[in-house]
Amino acid sequence: MENKPTQNQGKLYRFNRIKRKNVAKLAGFLSVLIMLVVFGLISLFLIVFPRSTESQIEKRKLATFPQFSFSSYFSGEFTRQVAEFYDDTVPFRDSFKTAGYNFKSIFGLNTGDEVKIVGAKEIKNKPKPVETSKPSVESKPSETSKETSKQESTVSQVSQESKVETSQMGEADYTVENGIIVVNHNGHYRALELLGGGTGNTYVEALNNFHSDLGDSVQIYSMIAPLASEYYLPSNYSGFSINQKECFDSIASRLDDGIVSIDIDTVLAQHTAEDIYFRTDHHWTPLGAYYAAQKFAEVANLDFKELSTYQKNDIEGFVGTMYAFTEDPHINNDPETFTYYVPSNMDKCTTEHYDTDFTNMSEGDFFVGVGDPQHNAYLTFMGGDEQVVRVKTNVKNGRKLAIVKDSYGNAIPGYLFGSYEEIYVIDMRYFDLNLVNFVKEQKITDLLFTMVAYSALGGNSEKLEILRTQ
After folding, report:
1. In this predicted structure, what is the pLDDT of residue 64?
2. Same domain, 70 and 219
């Protein structure tokens, strides 16, 4: 016989069912209430606290609120820019990004001796180029070697067989994530950019055109800086970055006879045990730039001061651009010392800052104090790139230098204040005048093109022809 629930049992069942429904309703209500409170606090946070205007980690100014216009509103551009503004300028943006990087590190990254490759692809099957005579800085290659070198179709064909073994590291394991390698070596982390290819044809053509326009009245120099990966790439990663030395030799062999190429790759290779490149930033250090400037002065037959005559200045706790590039907290947590050198005749020099069209002059300093030296120490040189800087020295030798550069070139001029009467510093990316006319008007005697390999082999080189023709 089937057992039927008693009347009391039925009442208890109904009571429990109602109780569960009420608990579920209360839980749902509390969940909604908590979400509303959280969203309210977030909204209040976004409204009350000032919005970020600049990212020290990413080394850039953040988005600004767009200007309204009916055309931009109806096209959707205005609302898109508004959304970008609010997304890009969250209060305490860098602090949140740092916390996020650390959280990701805890749950997703290894902490042992390792190499992390971000977006790198191995360069395979690189044929050896046609043999050419490698030019020295003191003499130009023959016409035969120039024509032979022009047969090379891409720099990515450069052979690795003759690469100088200067790496301080042995083999290491790696993980592929998202061109930057992070190496844990000798107790410190170092981030390395990779160089994948490029012909250098645009750079060569532009400099040859400048030589044609200016003739022999102006001595043109080419001095391309290698990336740190030329020297510090682990031995089992030679296939991930091209041989930069052979790239520079190939470029030198195709420049006109009147242009002097300066081989600083070989010079820097002799100093790899010193701090010639930053670990946490993509630039060379002021010490690396010193050795480059020393070689330039030797080739250009200039007076040059020994490093011991300079005033040494240290900025502790420097973390450069590689933290933003890699999002690796190991870089942020392993700062380094930024050391720069002020020449002894600095008090006898005058530094003038101009707009990029060489107007609105204001006197200032070449070595400037920056608001956040732990992140922006490289801005110590002139305070940045979007300007033209002229330095008048106490030297009386009739020689004037114009330096056409990217940010790598910022660390060069200070070492030449004892070598030239005047030095003009021009950023290839921002200058708004015709450079040929400018050089003639200012009676420039020496024109130095100095930049990192990325600029000489990549898109920045297109700016050089624009400078010549604009």
Report:
1. 80
2. no
